Amino acid sequence: MPACFGALRLDSPVWMAPMVGYNEAVTRRLCRRFGAATSITEMLKPEQLLKNPRSLRTVLQTLPDEGIRGAQIACADVAEAEAAAAWVGEAGFDYIELNFGCPLPKERRRRRGAALLADPEQIEALVAAVVHMLPCPVAVKVRSGPGEGRETIAEVARAVQQGGAAALCVHGRAADQPYDSPSRLAPIARAREAAPGLLLLGNGDIEEPSDAQRMVAETGCDGVVIGRGMVGNPWLLARVRAVLGGAPDPGAPTPQQIFDQLLDHAGELVELLGPRKGLGYARRYGHFYFAGFPEITLYRARVARLGPTLADFAAGLRPLVDSLRRREVHVRLRAFEAAWRGPTLPAHDRRV
Description:
The chain is an alpha/beta fold. It has helices spanning about 25-35, 45-50, 55-60, 80-90, 105-110, 120-135, 155-165, 185-195, 210-220, 235-245, 255-275, 275-290, 295-305, 310-340, and strands at about 5, 10, 15, 40-45, 70-75, 95-100, 140, 165-170, 200-205, 225. The strands form 2 sheets. An 8-stranded parallel sheet has the order 3-10-9-8-7-6-5-4. Strands 1-2 form a two-stranded antiparallel ribbon. The protein starts with a strand and ends in an 11-residue tail after the last helix.
């Protein structure tokens, strides 16, 4: 599903989502390797960019092969938007994304993020100001509305299109809905109807390739944005890219692939950030690589005792991978035995 985003040609319908603490350069490059069309920073605030950019040193470090790089900013008024946009333009990013979807109360109190979903006219003004300033394409991230009982997605989508943005990402929850509530597809479909000229991306609860297929089929969106589902599971990006492109699902990773990828991820983090900070990030990512497996309990028990070097980290992980492999072999053996024996008959049909 190749598409154009402004003057940029995309080679994948899968985008990386901005997430605070999980969008440093190593992970951005990793997502690109696994099939993301773009890489993007976590949400940046104007006061950080303009008054204390050193606080963003880790966030703003770059590496080769990140692909199309974007910066996401949150702003409340035109002055903030223009100042932040000027900084992003000078920093050499390929595109900018405006965040009108952040549900954090402290950002909403500042009239940023999801607070602006109640004011489509202000959204249009902010989008138009940034589009006017920068030659690169502008994307916008929103939620379905400022509250569960107040959906504004159709008005917001039209405002984004009229402001001149090239792409719109719609998260299927309202600003006051927690992440443990289901994300809805209907708001994404309504955005499609309201702004047919935008490159439309859907976001929310994509944990399997089938989730992405259903989102595209039921909403008419052009692609998907994956966040929490790909942390510690970059294979999801490749799998979604494959199925949306009409290819077979390459399947979930093996225990050895999980181990190797976590070590590669850790090694690149150490190379970029140094042993102490890099391994700190790696330990945190490890929780996600082993999430969903019984071995996560063993990981949590061992992670605080893992040594200060990458070799110590690898040695500490080996028992977890051995446990994963033994259990995988056991499951396969049971499946083979069941197939060899044939289907089990109900008790009253069995013959002695």
